[in-house]
Amino acid sequence: MFAFEHAGIVPDVLVLSKAIGGSLPLSVVIYNKELDLWSPGAHIGTFRGNQMAMAAGTATLKYMKETNLVEHAAKMGEILKDILKDLQKDIKQIGDVRGRGLMVGVEMINHEEPQNANGSHPADSQLASAIQQECFQRGLILEVGGRHGSVVRFLPPLIVTESQLREATAIFEQAVRAAVARG
Questions:
Q1: Number of neighbours of residue 152 by Cβ within 10 angstroms
Q2: Would you tell me the crossing angle of helices 125-137 and 162-182 to the nearest 10 degrees?
Q3: C-alpha 119: how far from chain center
Q4: Cα separation, 22 vs 61, whole angstroms
Q5: In this predicted structure, what is the pLDDT of residue 40?
Q6: In the structure, what pLDDT confidence band is assigned to residue 121 with cuts at 50, 70 and 90?
Q7: What is the pLDDT of residues 1-50, one digit of tens each?
Q8: What is the b/e burial string over 112-135, where b = at least 16 CB atoms within 10 angstroms of the residue's CB?
Q9: 3-state SS, one letter per residue, for 9-78
Q10: Are 106 and 84 spatial neighbours (Cβ–Cβ below 8 Å)?
Q11: What pLDDT does 45 receive?
Q12: 94-100 and 27-31 as β-strands: parallel, antiparallel, unpaired?
């Protein structure tokens, strides 16, 4: 379910928020019982313990388990990366395609500039921003981030279908080609 599980890491503390509440405001802090050094009542507040959000969070976790959503997200993530890697073969401005599950990033590069000592072309943050705008104009919302602001991020919902991924990546391809053509 979590990226750290694929890296063999056992965290001391895990902080969850946003989607865990099933669209209601909820955050959760999970930690080893040995770290629970709070005295009774020492960590309460007037904004904690929203029962509706807790019920929604419980229902969200139950749904995820019952529908094998983790496995679905992994499968859809592989499909997404495969589609993007196919685009990478035809579009020289697509550098690294990376991610885990449905958190996938596409690094935009300036392939006309020389490669660095690591064999990578420089990042192209202007192209990434132009692609983001082209996608938005076509109805697809993508984030831009990464160290140089050159990574276009795909962060679809975990329930996304293969058909929806294909539609999103078709829009992405159109946006990339339009942004590249504009130069």
A1: 25
A2: 120
A3: 26
A4: 9
A5: 78
A6: very high
A7: 888 888 889 899 998 887 888 888 888 888 888 888 888 777 666 666 68
A8: eeeeeeeeebbbbbebbbbbbebb
A9: CCCCEEEEEHHHHCCCCCEEEEECHHHCCCCCCCCCCCCCCCHHHHHHHHHHHHHHHHCCHHHHHHHHHH
A10: yes
A11: 65
A12: unpaired
Q: How many CA atoms lie within 13 A of 102 on its CB side?
A: 20
Quick: pLDDT tens for 141-176: 999 999 899 999 999 999 999 999 999 999 999 999
Q: Domains (ranges, CATH) in the chain? A: 3-66 (no CATH), 70-182 (3.90.1150.10)
CA distance 6 to 100: 9
How far is the C-alpha of 109 from the C-alpha of 144, rounded, in Å? 13
Alpha-carbon span 132 to 138, nearest angstrom: 10
Longest dimension (CA), the chain: 63
CB 108 within 8 Å of CB 129: no
For 155-180, b/e burial (b = at least 16 CB within 10 A) is: ebebebeeeebeebbebbbebbbbbb
Q: Are 158 and 72 in contact (CB under 8 A)?
A: yes
